[in-house]
Design brief:
This protein has 234 residues and is mainly alpha-helical. The protein folds into 2 domains: 69 residues, Winged helix-like DNA-binding domain superfamily/Winged helix DNA-binding domain (Arc Repressor Mutant, subunit A, Orthogonal Bundle), CATH 1.10.10; 150 residues, GntR ligand-binding domain-like (Four Helix Bundle (Hemerythrin (Met), subunit A), Up-down Bundle). Helix content is 70%, strand content 3%. It contains 11 helices and 2 strands. A two-stranded antiparallel ribbon has the order 1-2. A hairpin with a 3-residue loop joins strand 1 and strand 2. Helix 5 crosses helix 7.
Length: 234
């Protein structure tokens, strides 16, 4: 039977600060009490509070400013470093990473297609950006430049997710970047006819433009399934 590990004082301070934030007592941009005040409130030494604040600063949860104090950051500034390491250390679970990527992108494709159905002006700009990346893929293939094709492929999918305006989705998606580059390189290498790289992505653009949500779901899901097949996943 494994021993129960006791939490350090710093870990306990971090838990207390998390509870303060979770309770709604402090909102993004609010100034937190001083180290001295927090130490008195928690009944511990200032050094433990100082270490906890340093960790939260590194994670982007808090922002300490000289001579001004420590402030609660907004979500956009929170580091995804820990999640990036979790992904890096769990790369053998490749199917889970592709499922995560696929789920985020599929929701984004549905969102874009719905906007297209509603004739949103914003989606027209996104479609132009996507078409530009498809054209870049084609140019990369014609000039035998795999780097260009891979970059355009990544940009294509990145644009789809970024277009939703969902900052949490996009932050999570960004942590997949290094994995996705590797995945795209391996996947593209397995095409016997590299022109299919262009046609698959062009089909995604066309179905988004059509405003047909069901067709977009089928088209994009097929694209992800093709990736899994080429990478011998499942």
């Amino acid at each position: 039977m494994a021993k129960i590990r006791q939490k350090t004082v710093v870990e306990q301070v971090m838990e207390q600060i998390k509870e303060l934030i979770a309770s709604g007592e402090y909102q993004p941009g609010d100034k937190l009490p001083t180290e001295h005040e927090l130490a008195a409130r928690f009944g511990i030494g200032r050094s433990s509070v100082r270490e906890a604040i340093k960790i939260f600063n590194y994670l982007g949860v808090l922002k300490s400013k000289a001579a001004k104090g420590t402030f609660l950051s907004d979500r956009a500034n929170i580091s995804t470093e820990a999640l990036s390491w979790a992904i890096l250390m769990g790369k053998e679970e490749q199917h889970e990473l592709i499922e995560t990527r696929g789920a985020i992108e599929l929701w984004s494709v549905i969102n874009l297609t719905r906007q297209s159905m509603e004739k949103s002006e914003a989606v027209e700009e996104v479609l132009k950006e996507l078409q530009k990346e498809v054209d870049e893929m084609k140019a990369g293939i014609e000039s035998a430049s795999p780097e260009t094709t891979v970059e355009a492929d990544y940009n294509f999918h990145n644009i789809i997710v970024k277009s939703t305006g969902n900052t949490l989705f996009y932050a999570i998606y960004q942590t997949l970047k290094s994995f996705m580059y590797e995945e795209i390189v391996k996947s593209q290498d397995d095409y016997s006819d590299r022109s299919l790289i262009v046609s698959e992505h062009q089909h995604i653009v066309d179905t988004i433009r059509s405003g047909e949500i069901n067709q977009s779901v089928v088209t994009f899901s097929s694209h992800i399934e093709n990736i899994e097949s080429r990478l011998n996943i499942r």
